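Researcher: For the annotation table, I need structure tokens for Glycoside hydrolase family 95 protein. Please keep the output clean. Sequence:
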Amino acid sequence: MNNKFKYRISFVIACLLLNSIIPTKLWSQDLSDKIDSKEFDPATLMWYKEPAKIWEDALPVGNGRLGGMVFGGIEEEQICLNEDTYYSGGPYSTVVKGGHKVLPEIQKLLFEREPIKAHKLFSRNLLGYPIEQMKYQSLGALHLFYKKGQEYSNYKRWLDLSTGVAGVSYKIDGVTYTREVISSHVDQTIAIRLTSNKPGMLSFEAELRGMRNNAHSNYGTDYFWMDGENENELVLRGRSADYLGIDGQMLYEGRARFLNEGGKVSLDDSRLIVENADAVTIYYAAATNFVNYKDVSGDQAQRVQDYMKNVDNKQYKKVREEAIQDFQHLFKRVSMSFESTPSSYLPTNVRVDSIQNNPDAQMAALSYQFGRYLLISSSRVGTQPANLQGIWNYNPNPSWDSKYTTNINTQMNYWATESSNLSELHEPLFKMIEELKDEGSKVAKEHYGAKGWVFHQNTDLWRVAAPMDGAQWGTFTVGGAWLTTHMWERYLYSQDKTFLERAYPTMKGAVDFFMDFLVEHPNGKWLVTSPSNSPENPPAGPGYKYFYDEVVGYYFTTIVYGSTIDMQILKDLFSYYIQATEILGKDGYYANEVAKARERLVPSLVGKDGTLQEWTEDYGQMEKHHRHFSHMYGVYPGNVLSVKRTPELVAPLKKVMDLRGDESTGWSRAWKMGIWARLYDGERALRIYKGYLKDVCTKSLFALCSGSMQVDGSHGVTAGITEMLVQSHEGVIDILPALPKEWGTGKFDGICVRGGFQLKMVWKDKKVTDLEILSKAGILCKLEIEGKFKIMEGGQEVAFTTNKDGSLQFKTTKGKTYQLIKI
């Protein structure tokens, strides 16, 4: 096997004069002035007084496929680059044929309380092979080197969430230098614009660098050398890592094109040198040979050439305008604002600290919009779904391989998609779910002897579906079932029957698997999943102890039968499927059988300690403050337990959350925000949010997990804030259900709720003053709101009825907007 892969950088120099010179004062300089005068919107602007020192604090740009992390340096600018299909390896399968033959013995051992024996049998027969999966990779970085040792002043860098533009501005010797970076979805390039407010003052050197895998010296990038095939481009070519015995079949190319206005350009070894230019525009494009999860026959070089054609003879002003217009088509669908305070205008990293002691409700609006920004930047129609790090990764060996972890993290990336009015950005996730059925059906047959399809706790670009990493994690069989609930949520928010027809086979395939896989509990009443686990928490019960695991070393086991989260997810899946059959008018007999099976799933149980049990057996907690609390899925994001429908379980649910505490990882705290909002405790949710900012959030507002950047927590915070302001999972639009006192005055426009409704709302002193409801589907609207109102549409009063629970309901017409007028 050849483990040497060659990468080439090509420099050829040219001085190009643009047909029309753009004024040297950059648009971003206007924003810099607004920061000085505090005339910016603190709900959409992140800004800082110093460059990023580490990658995690750089500012992200992305067009769904092509991402950059901008450091904003003075002596050296670094923009780390990614392309969403660049993974190690190539198409492969992890299915182990005939594994299902040992399944009855595993189930028998679990019922006999022999978990370690069951664990080892699972490891030897049902773990996929290879046991690990492929890694999301970095394409390297563009470096710009400036003169060292110069004194500078009035430094600012920023990310304008409302435009998708990252910028930098500072002064040296009375000259103001500005840079801005955009990842354009329209042109499929990253555009970088450098200017100064005096002509002839731009001088720098540039390199395009690849990334070598230091942990695996035979893998990753290898060599660089000169190639003179283009007149004004830096070119980087390479091949993906040969990892886990899977040939590195991914080829990639990245090109940076330099268009200078004035000045002199020359070449010195591996650096492009610009001297005394008036302005410089850099376009960066990249691609791989990836076609789909089974095919890598694409032409990466031709793709890059085609992307570069998008900006041929195109002025930067036009590139910028079109990129912003495209971005704002999505971003501007929702606005949110709370009361501003002096703290709201501080640099973002200072605001994160200041909010602990000073009011700054606008920080919540900024966090909300940052999550939306990340989704727009990392998940577009036609791209891959957002992975653990979105599309931003600098490490060839990233934490958890920066792939798709589906025992909560991937799902959390998309929790706010529908409510935050970005419905079409769900599409990459839906496509991945549909692709997972391919390997998932083979895993169902070979590993479990079952129909349908199954998927576990992780996958990568190649859509493998078997258990991986170890039995501690791999016995989570409901990862695919959980993912399909997102398809149902799309239907609930849109009322789109055409989409439900598309989703139906995927949902039914997941149901088919569990109708085969469920086994009878020894009590003869219940049906349980077996094997099972409650991610990623080891129970403390008979037979559970640390032991030597042949896959991962000295460790613990999580293997059980009938974990609570399994039961809750299946209750949701079966319920959603039954409703889908009724709406679509199909498979009624089978739906009845599914309904019977649902009735036999283990009910919610309360343990001897007064908490909701995490497992069918009343085991104790080996790790009492574990970051996962998976048995709370049924409260949020699921729809099995609630204050209204299961009031007898509220105390056990709250006790679980009290025992787990308010601390933990970024995504864990974001999840806690949503749960406490569903429990109508906005003050607790706010306290957790502030702790999230303080302890597990980077200066650039990314969430952290065990010190590593992840985007899931940032998305989860967006979803949690939504749950505090409006809920709709109970069949009623619940207005301000968990509003903390600090957010007593505010407004939003564009948030969506189930039933196909879109809201515009203003409130003051925690009371709604104005509410508009756009009906996009024309169905009955049920509303829970404090106060007395009349409902108007087109100048006419609309009749409504008041239900026993105090909620209002009225008929709507598709496309009409209804105003609630306080009386």
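Researcher: And a one-line annotation?
Model: Confidence is low (pLDDT under 50) at residues 1-25, 217-229.
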